[in-house]
Amino acid sequence: MSADPASRAELIRKRGRDIGFDRVGFTRAQRSDDAARFTAWLDDGCEADLAYMRKTPERRVDPRAVLAGCRTVIAVTVGHWFPDAPRRAALPAAVARYARGRDYHRILEGMLKRLCRVLDGVAELGGGDSAGGAPRHRWYVDHGPVLERSWAAAAGVGFVGKNTMLIDPRRGSWSTLGVVLTTLDIPPDGPVSVTCGTCTRCIDVCPTDAITRPGRVDARLCISYWTIEHRGVIPEWVRPAIGTRVFGCDDCQDCCPWNRFAQPASAADHRPRDLFADADLARLARLSHAAWDDATRGTAVRRVGYEGLLRNVAVALGNCPDAAARPHLEHLAQHGSELVREHAAWALARHR
Ligand code: B12
Ligand code: SF4
Ligand code: SF4
Known about the structure:
single chain; binds iron/sulfur cluster
């Protein structure tokens, strides 16, 4: 292996694919072209109460402020789509696709660590750190001060759709992202030239009009925010629009024409668990804390907590026109959690 930059890039990409990433792309570490877009989003309060989005905005738009000497951002994608299994649920509920299998943070964490070891190996073969020393890297999946979709688009692993999702023209948007910031100098890939064109399906179908303009989602309106990120009481105005979704929302992806190219996930860990792929409000409403603990271990659904999940189940049962929902609501109305009881009471009132 030579120190030639182009072959170094191809070696890293190939090793990345061997690790299991669907796409691996490179872009220069510099101030993001989307910095103004991000600042405007914050200025308009679109982050709701996601306080971490407001912390260190300067770091979020410039990887060199996160890792001194950073020269390259590596963006990777891992698909999580599986064909839908036949539904048998008595009272069907929806769990977002990305959350039906093992927690993607855990899946990507191991893969990104392996990618960093590849980078170390490449450097030993003569890859260039700007200072001539051992290269340094930092990897992130979701939790870091990094505009992942912006870097993924700049690195050419897809484009940003009007729904703000990173869309791979070959596989669609059913993927999660990771990034590695590195001091290694790797030749950049260009962005892809594909766009949404005149399509506006995601804007038209969004149940809460949360896509307030092409390429902007206001978290204060987004069902994903209310059912996953928000702690405490869900405002009554948003509850009917939640429908029977109990964790996240996929409407702006389900409708997207690019997702006709979806391919089954290569990471077997993404295989959906039955409780989430064939989610049943009747079953979820009866989960004890111990059963919830067991069923959600190692999954992203755990993020909302036991009370939070039952809160969402109560709202979904309230939106479910089937009279069979009532006994489960009466059960939740007796729950030890005041939060769950309050949402169950609202839902029972709807049934009456
Ligand atoms: C905060 C957050 C949310 C918030 C806010 C969402 C939002 N759109 O901002 C809420 C809770 C609502 C949310 C929901 C979801 N999220 Co989220 N979320 C994040 C997080 C932590 C930060 C996103 C962010 O920076 N938002 C600020 C806005 C301004 O940035 P942005 O929307 O990403 O847009 C930037 C670029 O895309 C670009 N841009 C936007 N439009 C255009 C147009 C053009 C032409 C160009 C050039 C650039 C461009 O400019 C923007 C500013 O930099 C990221 C992880 C991360 N660290 O990046 C995950 C992340 C975006 N979420 C993810 C997922 C899977 C989801 C959900 C699908 C989950 C679900 N099924 O319920 C939904 C999708 C809702 C939606 N349509 O966005 C994935 C997306 C994967 C992908 N293929 O895109 C990420 C990347 C996590 C991950 N590591 O995989 N999320
Ligand atoms: S996730 Fe749902 S609520 Fe949020 S923007 Fe997409 S369709 Fe709208
Ligand atoms: S539904 Fe249409 S407008 Fe929305 S992201 Fe997909 S292609 Fe773009």
